[in-house]
């Protein structure tokens, strides 16, 4: 089977937080299903008070202990790097298959002005980035659906590719989510009162089917359903996140400030989704 990423290994960022430990456990279950090693990575910020090798080793020890209590047979690698965590994570993404990080601890406004490792890495990484989150966040992959945002764009195709691959490896169904608003139609305005909306829904459903056709042929083991609904993309995907084990969307790689100001779908999901979120970049 061809893979959506040419990288090797699932990288889990370890910073001493409970969220990072949970993300590492989840990443281990992904690594087991994908047949990949799990790489536990801690980045020391040069000059930060109390940031010593002994402390870093202790954080990695705790993460490795937590991981080994989960899926068996996972090869574990670990390393300590020095520098800016955001830059190190992006550098590591060039050789990784996936990066998994804990959930955001800042609001959308704080992320816009102060920055965030999760947001920055998601916007610049060369491989998919997962923000581990949920209420409660899952300890491991499971049989719940994988939801993917579909809009017919090239970027959406990249998200679809990763969603199919993930669903196939973990044995989960896939839900293709496409939403639209009256404002997005060319005839929005006074003329919208005369639109046959049933016909418009059929057109939108056909767009989804066309976007999925090639991937369904490549991954015939994945059960696929469509969800075509009126509404904003971020609202539709957030609603599906309450029933999914993973939501997959694309990122244009905009700066954190621009993306937050524009209210992109990926930014909204990173802050509010009820399950882990995978951001796929069109590199």
From TrEMBL:
Q: Where is the UspA domain?
A: 10-130, 144-281
Enumerate the InterPro entries for this protein. Rossmann-like_a/b/a_fold, Universal_stress_UspA, UspA
SUPFAM superfamilies named among the record's database cross-references: Adenine nucleotide alpha hydrolases-like
One Pfam assignment: Usp
Keywords annotated in UniProt: ATP-binding, Nucleotide-binding
Give the record's family classification.
Answer: Belongs to the universal stress protein A family.
This chain's protein is named Universal stress protein
State the organism of origin.
Rhodococcus zopfii
């Amino acid at each position: 089977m061809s893979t959506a990423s040419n990288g090797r290994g699932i990288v889990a960022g370890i910073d001493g937080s409970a969220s990072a430990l949970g993300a590492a456990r989840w990443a281990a279950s992904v690594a087991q299903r994908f047949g990949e090693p799990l790489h536990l990575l801690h980045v020391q910020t040069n000059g930060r008070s109390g940031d010593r090798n002994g402390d870093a080793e202790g954080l990695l020890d705790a993460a490795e202990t937590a991981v080994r209590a989960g899926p068996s047979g996972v090869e574990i690698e670990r390393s300590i790097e020095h520098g800016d965590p955001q830059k190190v994570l992006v550098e590591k993404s060039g050789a990784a298959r996936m990066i998994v990080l804990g959930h955001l601890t800042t609001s959308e406004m704080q992320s816009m002005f102060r920055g965030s490792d999760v947001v920055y890495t998601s916007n610049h990484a060369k491989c998919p980035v997962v923000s581990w989150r949920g209420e409660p966040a899952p300890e491991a992959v499971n049989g719940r659906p994988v939801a993917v945002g579909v809009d017919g764009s090239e970027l959406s195709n990249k998200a679809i590719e990763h969603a199919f691959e993930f669903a196939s490896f973990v044995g989960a169904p896939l839900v293709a989510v496409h939403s639209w608003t009256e404002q997005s139609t060319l005839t929005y305005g006074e003329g919208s009162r005369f639109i046959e909306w049933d016909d418009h829904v059929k057109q939108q459903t056909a767009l989804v089917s066309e976007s999925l056709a090639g991937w369904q042929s490549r991954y015939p083991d994945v059960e696929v359903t469509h969800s075509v609904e009126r509404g904003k993309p971020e609202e539709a995907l957030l609603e599906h996140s309450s029933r999914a084990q993973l939501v997959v969307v694309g990122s244009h790689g905009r700066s954190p400030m621009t993306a937050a100001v524009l209210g992109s779908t990926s930014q909204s999901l990173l802050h509010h989704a009820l399950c882990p979120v995978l951001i796929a970049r069109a590199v």
